[in-house]
Each structure stands twice: as C-alpha cells, then as structure tokens.
Amino acid sequence: MYRYDEFDDAFVRDRVAQFRDQVTRRLSGGLTEDEFKPLRLKNGVYLQLHAYMLRIAIPYGTLSARQMRQLARIAETYDRGYGHFTTRQNLQFNWPKLRDIPDILELLADVGMHCIQTSGNCIRNVTADHFAGVAADEIEDPRPVAELIRQWSSLHPEFDYLPRKFKIAVTGATHDRAAILAHDVGIAIVRNAAGEIGYRIIVGGGLGRTPMIGKVVREFLPKPELLAYLEAMMRVYNLEGRRDNKYKARVKILVHEIGIEEFRARVEAEYATIDGSATNADPAEAARIAAYFAPPAYETLPAESPAFAAAKAANPAFAAWVENNVFPHRQPGYAALTISLKAIGQPPGDASAAQMRAVADLAERYSFGEIRVTHHQNLVLPHVRQADLFALWQALGAADLAEANVGLITDIIACPGLDYCALATARSIPIAQALAKRFADPARQREIGPLEIKISGCINACGHHHVGHIGILGLEKRGAESYQITLGGDATENAALGEIIGPGIAAEAVPDAIERLVETYLALREKDEPFIAAIRRLGLAPFKAAFSGEVRHAAA
Amino acid sequence: MPLLDRDGFKPDSFTRVPEAGETGETAILVPFAPDAPPAPPAGNRALGIEIANTVRIDALRPHLDRFALIAIGFPAFSDGRGFSLAKQLRNAGFRGTLRAVGPLIADQFAYALACGFDEVELPEALATRQPAEIWLAAARAIRATYQRSHQAGGVSILDRRRAARAAAAEPGAAP
Q1: Which of A232, A302, B28, B78 is the most exposed place for a label (fewest CB within 10 A)?
Q2: Mean pLDDT in residue range A194-204
Q3: Residues A498-543: pLDDT tens digits?
Q4: The domain that contains A496 carries what CATH number?
Q5: Does the CB of B146 have a partner CB in chain A at under 8 Å?
Q6: Are residues A53 and A164 in the same domain?
Q7: What number of H helices and E strands is found in chain A?
C-alpha cells in the first residue's frame, strides 16, 4: 500500500491548516457563503438536509487497518457511531459539526488520509478495480497509476474550477470492475501488438440525468505520457465545456455535442503544444510509487487447501458464503474475500465503529493489514489464506458481517436518498431495506443467482441505477414519491444503460413489481443463464408485460 | 480597481483607453477583438490588451510579441477558464505580464500565480473584504505542490523527490 512520504504529509497538513483558516474567515465574514461553498465542497463538506456531511477520500478504495481504526474513532468521537461507504469507494459521515471538521481532518492526516476533492467542480477521488493485485486477468496493477493521478490532480491550479465535477476510474484487468465506461475519463491498462503496456483512454461516459457510455479517445497511450495527455484533455474541457447550464456541463455533453472525432482532434492539437517533461512523472517517480504496491510476502501454499475443502464439505452455510463472497486469488492457496455491508434490513454500505474495528483486526490478522472498499459499497480483505477462511467466517459472524449475499439480489446499491440528501427527490434506503426483506431467504437468493439492483433517490444517479440489471429511480410526482424501473443496465465492459419498462410506481408497490420481474426471469431462463443474459436474449417484452400486469393489479 | 501582485497592492501603470490610436498615456490597456487586433500604438508606448476568457489562443498567437500585458477577464471566481488560457499563453511563449481581472478570491491566488499570472485586479469591495495580508498568506498556504508552478519560488514535490533521489545516488553521499 502507498505510504505518505514527508512531502505528502506536509501537503495534507497544509491543506488542513488552509481549511481551518477558511472556516475562520467564513465565520468572521472575510468569505461570503457563496465564496465559502466551493471551498468547503472541495474539502468534502456538504450541507445536507439535517446536518453537515463529510466525505472522506479512500483513494482507489484501498485502506489500511490503521486507517480503518481511525475512521472508527472519528465515527465515535464526532459522529453517531457509524459511517457510510459510498459508490465511489469513499466514506461519509452524516452528522459532524462544522466546528469539529478541522480536528477531524487533523486525525485523518495522522493516518495519511484527507477529504481533498471529494466534492466540487474538480477532479474527484480516483477509483479503481477493488480486486487490483488479486485478479488473475490483470495486465498490471491499476493502483500505482491511480496514486499518480491522485497526486497530480490534488489542488491542481488549473483544474480546480472546472465546468463541473470530473471522475476518473482505472482498471488493469480485462473484466472491468471499475465501470470505466461510465466515468468522465476511464483508463484501461492494455498491452499493444508489440507487447508494450500502455493505456486506452475513454472519455465522456457518465450517469446522472443524461447517461452516456464513454468513447475511446486514444486507443494506446504510452505509459510515460499519461499526465501530459490528461492535462491536454482537461484543458480542452476546462476551456470548452459548457458553463451556461450545470446540467449540460459534464464532459460527456461536450463530447456528445462536438463528436468524439472533433474532441480527439482538439485534445491532440493541445497535446502537441505541451512540453511533456514539465508535467509527466519521470520513470523513477513512477517506480517509486509502484514499489509500494508490490505483492505482500505470500506463503508458498498448495493451490487448494485441504482444511478449507473439509470445512466447506462439513458446513453448508460456510460453503454457501464462500460461493458468494470469495473471489479467486492469483496466488495459489489464497483468496480475496468480500465482506457484505448489506445485512438484511440495514442501510446498504453502513458500518458501525465496532464493525470497522472488527474488520481492521481481521485484516491485520488474516490479510496483511489491507482492506478494500468496493463501489458496490462492500469491503474486501484482499489476501486471505484459504485455510483461514473458516475462522474468518466465524469471526465475521460475531460482528454481524457474514451475510452471504455478494452479487445476489439483496446486495443492493443505494444512495443516501431523502433520508439524508438535500438533492434527493425520494427515499432510497427504505426501498433497499424492503427489497432485502422480501428476498431475504438465502436459498431463494442463490436460486435467482447474480442480479444487481441499484437505487437512486434522484436523477443525479449516485446509486448508478442506469447500470443496474434492475435500476430503480425515485422521483417526486405531484407531491408523492414515484419509482421508475429500468431493466438491462450493465456497468462492466459490456456496459449498457437500462431501459424504462413502464410508468412510475409507489414505494409500497416496488417489492411486488420486482418480484414479478424476477419470477418472469425464473420462468423463462435457460439452464444456468444469469438474469442479465436472459434479458439480453429475451428482450424487454416479457418483462414489460409482467410489469404492466403488476401495475394494473396494484391500481385495481 | 485595486491591483495586487505577490508583494501586495500596487499602483496600476496601465490606463484603459478605448483604442490604441489615442495619445498621451505611456502604457495603455485596450479591448481586444479577434477579428480586429489593435494597431501598434504610436511611439514606444507599452500596449496591453484586455480579453474575455472565451478568446481562443489561436487568435492571439500571431500577435503575442506586440503585447506588454494581457488582462484576462474572470466573470466569476467559479469560472476557471482564465487559468487554462493563462497556461496556454505561457506555453505559447508569452513573456509579458499576465493579469487576472475580476472577483477572484484570495484562496485562488496561488493557482493564478501557478498558471502564469503575475497580478490580479479586483473589484473594490472584494479588496476591502480580503485585504493584502490575506492574499499574501493564501499564496503561501500550500508550501509545495504536485504540479510545477510558474510562481517564483514555487516548489514542486516531483522536483524535490528527484533531487532527493539524485543526492542519494551521488557517490559518497551521506546515508
């Protein structure tokens, strides 16, 4: 894992002092509220419905046990004893007091963390594959380049007042777990015909009210050129992105309006004027960062642990948990383990301080002290010996963290919605809770198989509903919440946007409607055919028919 | 309007005139329209131009050596186009003075300097609310940055790390 050197440390300390001073100047009137607002947003401080919210960056979703313990401490000292992991691999505290935030930032700096650019019209926290360094299909670990981008983009003097927010995601694997096609910029680590490693650069994807799939702007960018090329792209966007309408200000709209060929031509023309040596990290710097992500000191183990196999054979509940929550590791005898934060009936992504400490302890004991946060709002212990999984499962059970539902219908993504968020038009969390309760039976969940439900409480789509196999968007119609259902979305390398299957429905009607869709799938699927594959094969017609029957039924 | 650089507020040596042909002042600041670039002023008076942040670098490139100063408008502090335009002008080799004009806030001073600006011209009320000491402190708030800066005395973390590596690689260097 990356560790701050003296410069990184001084940098975040300076930012804490700067924010403390900004708060003081706001209170003394030196800064107006209009001036202060972007400054606090760029440090992750939102004003929500009931309180301030603080969003902490967890760059590319990688967290140490020590950092997790500090988050638990902050949750207990300054919040209500819990935190919320987000769809951008970050952590939000929902109840801090503005006057405490500089002290919270100080505690974060103590463990090499910050809130820099977790909001505002700037380059946001860089996300990456949560199985980086684990997955067998990885060309190269995406975390070194994500860390390089984190540093380069932090307080970038030219790109801190962009037309709108800007999100970058990186994957190093062929299977895309970082949703790079749904980001302002997506970066795929690729190998060219000559065998050299470089980057495929995607631009103009995004969700929100105008969802779009990203397009390739550069098929192969040599590794050392990355930052200068990003600079050219950001400059074109900063100068030419729309500023007349905040809903048309994302780079996806610029790319859509001028076309990818014209966008590419402008970026390449700008790139030609840049002295790359002034911007790019030299190879020694890239190597310095990469060294932090060297694999941990694995033991040499057989590919299959006999003790693990025996435990699975003896305990069906353990075997079921392994089947859903364990991901194969490229190191023989090891596994990556996803800890579900989707206990039935709990708000998706929430973790108590006690749970954070439990995960930190287990990470230290079983996973080289390393934890990942996924954009599905779960946690990962990336490097666990197979032989330790049974003990881990028991320990997680004691902390209410052994839900065996990763990737299944109750592993629901939901934004905070109207329970917290000032932008929301409808509740999200109670819908997720109701659906989880409806499909709580573990055997039935396994029977249904992989199915991603994603819920957003407004059109801004923080719950990624457009790319859910089943998407649920909460709107407000004539003073009542109304939920629009989409089908067929996909966030992977087969990225697709879901299609609306019928009129909006009331909150109480959502579980029955989803049940009808699931029943339709179960009735029509071929052997072992996952939900999303069945939708691709069958089209929407049978699902629309089932849904409209349900709506008529509900209205009758 | 009040004018400030990295040493604090200072008098403005440029006078705004409608067009370059007029006589009298030693240094003049005129509006710039891409389709009608100003004629060189009479005598050896310094010529400055004032541009909107929507002017394209290509419209300026042929004339750059004629301008002693380019003033770029910031219609709002949240509109960051001027930062990129300044950077493009510096990349294009412009050596004259770059001025940011508009309601920038002190917290952007370091960014403006890093992008190649030399000075900021502020609305009166803003300069009253945010006096010089606030601006000078804000310019120094982050002591070293991850980007290379045009600011005199700007410290690049990348360069510091490179220097540290070079020192470590030096034979006989202290451990």
Answers
A1: A302
A2: 97
A3: 999 999 999 999 999 999 999 999 999 999 999 999 999 999 999 9
A4: 3.30.413.10
A5: yes
A6: no
A7: 18, 20
Burial of A362 (0-12, 13-18, 19+ CB in 10 A): buried
Helix (H, G, I), strand (E, B) or coil at A303: coil
Identify whether the C-beta of residue B80 lies closer than 8 Å to the C-beta of residue A161: yes
- The answer to whether residues A115 and A44 touch, using CB atoms and an 8 Å cutoff, is yes
Instruction: Say yes or no to pLDDT of A9 above 50.
Output: yes
Confirm if A165 and A124 have CB atoms less than 8 A apart: yes
DSSP string, A349-405: TEEEHHHHHHHHHHHHHHSTTEEEE-TTS-EEEEEEEGGGHHHHHHHHHHTT-----
Q: Does B142 sit within 8 Å of A151, measured CB to CB?
A: no
Domain holding A383, by residue range, is 306-398
Give the mean pLDDT of A143-167: 98
Of A338, A363, A398, which one is at a domain's C-terminal end?
A398
> Rounded distance, CA A318 to CA A27, Å?
55
Are the beta carbons of A379 and A373 closer than 8 angstroms?
yes
* CB < 8 Å & 24+ apart, contacts of A316-319: A317/A404, A318/A390, A318/A393
| Residues B71-86: b if buried by 16+ CB within 10 A, e if exposed | bbbbeebbbbbbbbbb
Q: Judge whether residue A213 has pLDDT over 70.
A: yes
CB spacing of A158 vs B108 below 8 angstroms: no
Per the CB < 8 Å rule, is B162 touching A284? yes
Tokens of A494: 């087969």
For residue A197, report the phi and psi dihedrals to the nearest 5 degrees: -95, 135
Per-residue confidence at B175, pLDDT binned at 50, 70, 90?
Answer: very low
With CA atoms as reference, report the closest residue to A339 among A391, A388, A382. Answer: A382
A514 in Cβ contact with A543 (< 8 Å): no
pLDDT value of residue B42: 65
Reduce the DSSP state of residue A198 to 3 states and report it: strand
- The Cα–Cα gap between A424 and A528 comes to 38
Enumerate the residues of chain A whose CB falls inside 8 A of the CB of residue B141.
14, 17-18, 21
Chain A from 122 to 161: CB within 8 A of any B CB: 151-152, 154-161
* Amino acid, single-letter form, for residue B69: L
Q: What is the mean pLDDT of residues A220-242?
A: 98
A493 within 8 A of A200, measured Cβ to Cβ: no
